Amino acid sequence: MCMTCGCGTSDVHVEGGGHAHTHTHPDGSTHSHVHDPSQGAHDHVHEAVHEHSHTHADGTVHNHAHAHPHDHSHAPAAGEMHTHADGTTHAHALHDPAHAHHDPAHSHGAEALHYGRGPAGNSAPGMTQSRLVQIERDILSKNDGIAQRNRATLAQRGIFALNLVSSPGSGKTTLLVRTIERLAGRLQVAVIEGDQQTSVDAERIRATGAPALQINTGKGCHLDAAMVETALQRLAPAEDSVLMVENVGNLVCPAAFDLGEARKVVVLSVTEGEDKPLKYPDMFHAASLLLLNKVDLLPYLSFDVERCIEYARRINPSIEILQVSATSGAGLDAWLAWIEAGAHAARRQRLDQVAALQQRVAELEAQVARLQSP
Amino acid sequence: MHEMALAESVREIVEDTARANGARRVASVRLEIGKLSQVEVEAMRFAFDVVMRGTLAATARLDITETDGSAWCMRCSQPVVIAQRGDGCPQCGSHQLQVTGGERMRVMDIEIE
Question: Distance (Å, rounded) from C-alpha A263 to C-alpha A152?
Fold first, then answer.
């Protein structure tokens, strides 16, 4: 479970203070233990089922009770410290700290099946027939593969796709609404809205007449390429249009997930701190354009624009920066021009591709004609 | 923060590989995490334990090899090691750095039985 942002499955709660738990083991045995608040805060997360299986290299099944007075991890070097799958750490009173011994006769009380092997178990010769399988694959390879497919689909249709990222409340949706209104008659815009809950944002976009699709990520803290692939199929944006993907408001997680966009645009409002580029460098590094939004409020704030720009360039020397206000309209012309340039490039690319294919068809037809003629 | 989603990707890669190799159990999983990648190692360990439940890798040991962030300092004209993005050159303090390594996050290998 992502304790910081809450992404992942739901039935998790963070507990603190004194309380008792009952754990159910995979073998059906249960045991309970008490947490003593006097041991100090020990935030931990419990899933509904506490799967707590210990495994031994020799496959020994043995009984094993846990007195759980606290804070320990299974790290072999640490001896009596012991970390559970659910993140709890606590001590094994009845356990040899090295956790390596486990002779078959070793009995601990309650039933538990031990399949695992401590690192010490590894060294027991002839006990396992394990082998190493080389993988060397990027963790995000699946997402990146789908993102490339999205990118190809978008390119074929001449669609200029932007991934808009920011913290919550930076004014992305308002900026989008103004952008769509100002581009009316010049460029078609379709929008994919990402939020944990509600379809409020998509409704705001649809009120402008632009097609919009809401993705609710539930507990998820970012959009991924598969979500956008599905959304693209449903939304079916027009050829030579602009696709704006408004990511979940979050300056951390969306940086890692390629959606297949042409450019990431990070929106930072001047009501936030000017040091955000330094605090969230991954996002500012990943973005091509920084929109410094709400500049109409600058007279009332102590936001140092020059310093913010310097910080952003420190993280990403090639980042473009535009100062805008969705409310007053300041700077929007430059932003619209930036979009139009990208859209025209995407369209040109599509037309070039069409021309190249047509030429190829003509060549093949000529070849067929030559082969058919006697 | 997105370590849960990353751990789910790790699980897919590990499960696919384990099945393809007829494994009964995955004993260990080794990841390479660059210090400039967007992964908090402790959060990854936590997420790994959670997402691997009920899989062939339920009891797998997780080994994480962290790789240093490396960059080319344009002013010093030499490679340098940096701890995080946005850091200056440890020699001259310049921010004219081109990151050259430490951004990857990969599943390196698994040990199966």
Answer: 14
Size of interface A-B (CB pairs under 8 A): 139
Please state whether the predicted TM-score (pTM) of the whole model is above 0.90.
Answer: no
Answer whether B82 touches A (CB < 8 Å): no
3-state helix/strand/coil string of A122-133: HCCCCCCCCEEE
The CATH number assigned to the domain holding B87 equals 3.30.2320.80
B71: contact with A, CB 8 A cutoff = no
Confidence band, pLDDT 50/70/90 cuts, at residue A128: low
* pLDDT tens-digit readout, A162-214: 999 999 999 999 999 999 999 999 999 999 999 999 999 999 999 999 999 99
Q: Cβ contacts (< 8 Å) between B17 and chain A: which residues?
A: 133, 135
In which residue ranges of chain A is CATH 3.40.50.300 found? 147-351
Residue B97 belongs to what domain range? 3-112
DSSP A83: B
* A278 neighbourhood in chain B, CB within 8 Å: 86
> What torsion, rounded to 10 degrees, do the Cα atoms A86, A92, A98, A102 define?
-100
Beta strands in chain A (DSSP E): 13-15, 19-24, 30-35, 44-46, 131-138, 160-166, 189-195, 212-216, 242-246, 263-269, 289-293, 320-323
Which of A223, A244, A272, A225 minimizes the C-alpha distance to A174? A244
CATH class (in words) of the domain with range A147-351 = alpha beta
- CB contact (8 A) between residue B43 and residue A2: yes
> Is B73 at the interface with chain A, CB within 8 A?
no
- Domain count of chain B? 1
Contacting residues of B for A141, CB less than 8 Å apart:
9, 13
User: What pLDDT is stored for residue B10 in this prediction?
Assistant: 96
User: Per-residue DSSP letters for B45-76?
Assistant: HHHHHHHTTTSTTTT-EEEEEEE-EEEEETTT
- B10: chain A residues, CB-CB within 8 Å: 139
Structure ipTM over 0.90, yes or no: no
Over residues A221-243, the pLDDT tens digits come to 899 999 999 999 999 999 999 99
| Phi, psi dihedral angles at A65 (to 5 degrees) | -100, 145
